[in-house]
Every structure is written in structure tokens, then in C-alpha cells.
Backbone:
């Protein structure tokens, strides 16, 4: 097991009715809050009104900042940061899914920086602080509610970059599974694929870490077990609960304490999203199964055998390669039952500029830590996913 | 899944050579440290000298406080607290196993309290603060390195009580698996049983929490897989690593986020220890398997079936009760391979005053949350363990 640090100071309030605490919790940080949210969904479900009322009860001044896009734009970060400075905001409260929370992290950092916040996302400048961040989660997917990461897109430069600082872990996050009841079929599928892919990024690794692998399998099994149940009955509390905290554990340190992030899937998907503005998980759904097929070899067969047997309940057998292939086939089949795309054409991406995409994805000689892939490799994977 | 809070602010530094960081880490909290440790083991292994040197390099004044007992006494807490007050200690550094760390938590709290620290452990007074606590772990067992709990014994009143406060989570803990190479065969077995029993206390629960159960199984499987390897080769780094972080995860919130602590095993063992000063895990080894046998019924068979199949790799079968029994038999067998006691007589406890023990253990009408046991039940379990 490799050396690692394990630290996560975000406080989680999980369960029915926990949103009621938000006013008092925010009040501990001050009297002015920037309320960050996306489009109309939190208004439709009544959460917006509820939060406003709870904050007003504590006499907290609310600076309203809605309209965050599903792939949050650097423009929103700039604008939100300026609002914080103008109104002396004490805490940035994100109400929404991963995009909204990611935006809040950028905004809270921009608020304490005089330059352009893209400096952080382009790794030019290190952040030296951020306003306190808090979240009310409405989508089980990205894990952003309990980590420091933030992904923001710059469509000018066609870049979608992930970044985080020691100051961007939320102080607290409120996770009420009932707030995900209204998540659509497709968005629920996206959440399932997103959180599974987070686990893949740690599970498929050259680092030997038995405990870590078993924990990864626990999270994957849970998501696979409850995903279809939530799709069948969107108001299944047990299913929504397990998916919600499963997606948190998938990217809060617990799934990857002794592992390096593999990287191929996320890096390549970010490039796809920056080209086509597709949903992150749609891109991941297309990439991961083809990537698995491509990297399966004598060198990786033991890991994929474990994956097949322990996660997908494929019967063990003497022909390890055969069992491994059956496991990958299960991934394809599972994604199909979720109605997720399996090929780029399912996303209406026809004749993509593969070389250009590959060049953006593979900035150094290779991409990926588990299996180091050259530009040629990535080209082949993309071709198989056409 | 029930509502829960999930929060653990301890920072873990895991791996070979991490102890080298201790000087600089302590320095962040001040210039005077109370160094708490047990008997001679950390001196024998050279860790004591290493830590002294690292602290002195940072010009940190060291107040030396060794001699903590395996079941730490309230007298040590009082004395340590007084030393902190006298020398204006800035941080309490525990170097050792769970007993030493538990003592450090009591001492750090006593340092900020004018009365008798037994007031905390007898639940008479709430603590309002503690000095910062840090640990260097030398035994994979109690999980105390990443939680707020502390168990202290008062032999005057024959009480061994668990307690913790919002201030007793260590600020940081350094976990180098190499520091457990010299742990004896018996102590290694104790650590295995202790951490397994922590997981049992959450796993056997009426709370339905699929994700939580799978994570519990991940931790138990790891401990069962690597326990015998560490006994066979005490310098097996992978084995020691997995046992070390496995025992941390067994009681840092990750194993029980959506569960209540069952309680029978720990509460009853604490009474046994307070009577006989036996090692905590020796008591647990005797109690848990007999407890499992006693509570197995039509009501609990599904859980024990899961336990048998998922944790002990018993073949699934139609006769659930039969499979469940096989699982419990595996626990007995496994403990035997560890050379752990299975009966009270193995601990030289002959003709114990069962009624007196039962009356101390069952303070209210029943004990245990998963299966509520009356005094009569506990008597029967103890009799089966004679």
C-alpha cells in the first residue's frame, strides 16, 4: 500500500428534513450569503422557497445568483466572484448538483483573488484562500459535495479543467435523498455512470491495496444494485439514499485513499465536453466500456477478472480472460438498461475531429496511469466508440 | 437509511517514514508537548528515541509521561492533566496503541477542567474543551487514532467507561505499518479481533443500509484475509498496512455511518475487564461468537446468512439457517487459528460471579440494540462461554 494522506473536513448532514438546519448552520459563518443555483429545477421542487425562508428566518441577507450551466462557465465564476466582493459575502451556498457546487468553489476562490479566476483553472496561480462554501445537494453524481474539486469550462479556449485548493472543501453539505426524487430518468442514469466512473478511476490501478479495492467494490455493488430501482421508482427512499451517499463515498477519499487517479476517462471526457457541451456522464458512458475493452490484456486480466466476479457477479471460471470479457460485457449491458449512450453517434457526434480531440486529451506522451495510452491508443478507443 | 451526521476532521499520514513529519506537525500547535506512552515497547523498537530527536530538532520542550497501562487508569488521566496545567502544554502527543491514545484524550480534556476527570467518564459533566491531541500509532486495533472515543478504567468503582467529546478527535495521526512489525503474536490477534468486533457492532443492526453493510464486509474481509498473513510473517508490509488502515476504518465513521452501535459485546467486555483486568480483545474474542450463537434465530437468520456468505465465503444454500450456522462456526475456527481465547476458562476466569457481572452490564432492562437482551439472556451467553 502506498503512502497517503487521508483528510476530509466536510461535515455531512444526511437524511429527510435535514435542510431545515441550513439557516442556523449558515448563520455560524455570517450574515450575508451568495445563493448559487442552476436553472429552474430547485424552484419547481419548492426547495428554493424553502431555503429562502430558512435563511430569512435567521435574518441572513441573500445575494441571488442563479443560472449556473450544467458545464459551468468561467464567466459565471467571474461574475459570482465580483458579486461576493461587492456585497461582502460571508459564505457561498450552492443549492443543486455538481455543476452548481463546482461553480460555488470557483466563485468562493475568485472572491478572494484580484486576478482572473481562470488563472486557477489553468494552473497559473495558486489560490491562497476562499470564502466558506456550503451545499445542499439535489443530484447524486459528482461527489463535489464532499471534496475540494471543481471543474469549469472555458469555451473560448475549448478547455474544461479540473482544479481544487486546500480551501475549497465545503464546510458542510446537506444531503436529503428526497431532494433527488424529481431527478429525471436520464439525469439519474448520468449520476449512476458518473459515480461508477469515479470508482473505476481508483479501482483500475497498479497500486496494490486490497482494502481499497474491497471498498471500491462495496460502492460499485451498491450503485449497480440501487440504480435500476431508482429508475423504476424515483421515490424509492432506500434507493435514492444509497445512490446519494454512494456517490459521495465514490469521490471523497474513501474510494481512493491508497490509489492514484487513473485519469483517462475523465481527461478525455472533459475534452469531449469542451468540444460538444455534452453531459459529463454521457461522455463517460461512451468512453469507459470501450476503454475497458481496449486495455484488457494478459497484463490486466487479473484485475478485470476480479471486477467481473466481485462487482458484476459473473461466475468464476478457469478461463480468466473469458470471465473478464463477460464482466466488461455486463458494463455495456448495464449502461444500456439505464438508456445511456454507448457510442458517440448516440450523442449525435458524427465524424468528430478525432486528431484534434486526441491532441487536446494527450498533452504529454501518454494518458492514464493504469495503462499508459499513447495518442494512437486513444485514437483507437475513440474509433471503436464512433 | 436513517438520518446521520458524517464528520471526521482527523488528518491521517499513512505509510513508511511518515513519522519524520512529527516535529514540524507538532510545531504548528506550539512549543511544549506532553509525550504520552505505555511501557517499554516504543523504547525497544527505537521509536521513542526517534520521536524525541525529531521534536528536539524543532526546539519543542518535551514533558515525558510514560507508563500508561493497557487498560488505562483514571489515575493516569488525573496525573497527566496536572502535568499539562503545570507545564502549559500545547499539545498532547500519544505514541502507542489504543490505550495510550485513549489516555491522551482524557489527559487533554483534564488539562482544561478544574474538577476530577472521572466526572467526564461517569457522564456527570460535559467537557468544554481539550488541548490538541496527536498520535503516532503502533498497534492496529482500536481505531482510537481517528475518532473521539476514550475508554478509561476506575478500579475503585470497578467501572470501565467509554466517553468522548467534540474536542477529542486527534488533529493528526501518523500510521506507519512498520511500527507494528514488533507487535507480538497475541497482540496482533487481539488487534484483529478488536477491529472485527467494531465492525460487528455496526453490521449487526436493524437499520437497513445496504451501502453501509457492503463497506462493513469490505473491512471484515480485509482483516480476515491479512490477519493470518501478519501472524505468519510479522514483517509483511502489505498485511500490516491493510490491518492498520482496516482497523482505522472499522471505527472512524466509515463502517457505521448509517447504523447505531449494537453495544452488547463492548459493554459486557468492559465489565469483564473491570473485574479481571484482561485484554479488551481477549474478552471480545470470548463473547462475540457465543453472542452470535445465542441471538441466531428466524428473525436474525437473513443477516447471519449474509455474514456467512459475503464475509466468510460459505457456499450459499437453500437452508439459510444451516449456512448461517456455518458462518458462526467460521468465526470460532478463525479465532482459534489466531490462538485467541474462546472460553472464559482460557483466560483463567473460573467460577466468575455471573450475577454480579450481569448486573453491572445490564444497567437498564436490556442490553444491545440489534437483539435486546435481558439479564437472563446475558447470563445464558456467559454460561455458554464458561
Residues:
Amino acid at each position: 500500500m502506498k503512502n497517503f494522506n487521508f483528510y476530509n473536513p466536510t461535515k455531512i448532514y444526511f437524511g429527510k428534513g435535514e435542510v431545515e438546519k441550513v439557516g442556523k448552520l449558515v448563520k455560524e459563518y455570517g450574515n450575508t450569503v451568495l445563493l448559487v443555483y442552476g436553472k429552474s429545477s430547485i424552484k419547481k421542487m419548492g426547495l428554493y422557497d424553502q431555503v429562502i425562508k430558512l435563511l430569512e428566518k435567521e435574518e441572513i441577507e441573500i445575494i441571488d445568483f442563479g443560472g449556473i450551466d450544467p458545464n459551468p462557465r468561467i464567466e459565471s465564476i467571474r461574475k459570482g466572484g465580483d458579486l461576493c466582493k461587492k456585497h461582502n459575502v460571508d459564505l457561498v451556498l450552492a443549492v443543486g448538483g455538481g455543476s452548481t457546487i463546482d461553480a460555488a468553489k470557483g466563485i468562493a476562490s475568485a472572491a478572494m483573488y484580484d486576478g482572473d479566476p481562470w488563472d486557477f483553472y489553468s494552473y497559473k496561480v495558486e489560490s491562497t484562500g476562499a470564502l466558506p462554501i456550503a451545499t445542499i445537494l439535489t443530484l447524486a453524481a459528482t461527489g463535489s459535495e464532499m471534496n475540494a474539486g471543481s471543474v469549469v469550462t472555458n469555451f473560448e479556449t475549448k478547455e474544461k479543467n479540473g482544479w481544487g485548493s486546500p480551501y475549497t472543501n465545503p464546510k458542510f453539505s446537506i444531503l436529503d435523498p428526497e431532494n433527488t426524487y424529481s431527478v429525471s430518468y436520464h439525469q439519474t442514469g448520468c449520476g449512476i455512470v458518473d459515480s461508477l466512473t469515479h470508482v473505476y478511476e481508483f479501482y483500475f490501478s497498479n497500486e496494490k491495496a486490497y482494502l481499497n479495492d474491497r471498498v471500491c467494490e462495496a460502492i460499485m455493488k451498491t450503485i449497480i444494485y440501487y440504480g435500476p430501482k431508482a429508475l423504476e421508482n424515483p421515490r424509492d427512499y432506500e434507493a435514492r439514499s444509497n445512490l446519494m451517499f454512494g456517490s459521495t463515498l465514490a469521490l471523497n477519499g474513501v474510494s481512493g485513499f491508497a490509489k492514484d487517479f487513473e485519469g483517462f476517462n475523465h481527461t478525455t471526457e472533459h475534452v469531449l465536453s469542451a468540444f460538444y457541451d455534452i453531459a459529463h456522464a454521457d461522455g463517460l458512458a461512451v468512453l469507459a466500456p470501450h476503454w475497458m475493452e481496449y486495455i484488457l490484456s494478459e497484463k490486466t486480466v487479473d484485475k478485470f477478472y476480479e471486477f467481473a466476479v466481485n462487482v458484476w457477479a459473473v461466475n468464476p471460471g478457469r478461463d480468466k480472460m473469458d470471465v473478464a470479457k463477460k464482466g466488461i460485457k455486463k458494463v455495456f449491458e448495464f449502461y444500456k438498461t439505464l438508456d445511456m449512450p454507448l457510442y458517440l453517434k448516440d450523442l449525435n457526434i458524427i465524424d468528430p475531429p478525432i486528431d484534434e480531440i486526441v491532441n487536446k486529451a494527450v498533452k504529454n506522451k501518454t494518458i492514464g496511469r493504469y495503462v499508459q495510452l499513447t495518442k494512437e491508443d486513444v485514437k483507437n478507443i475513440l474509433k471503436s466508440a464512433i
Chain A touches chain B through 42 residues (CB under 8 Å). Residues 36 and 65 of chain A are 5 Å apart (CA to CA). The longest strand of chain A covers residues 4-14.
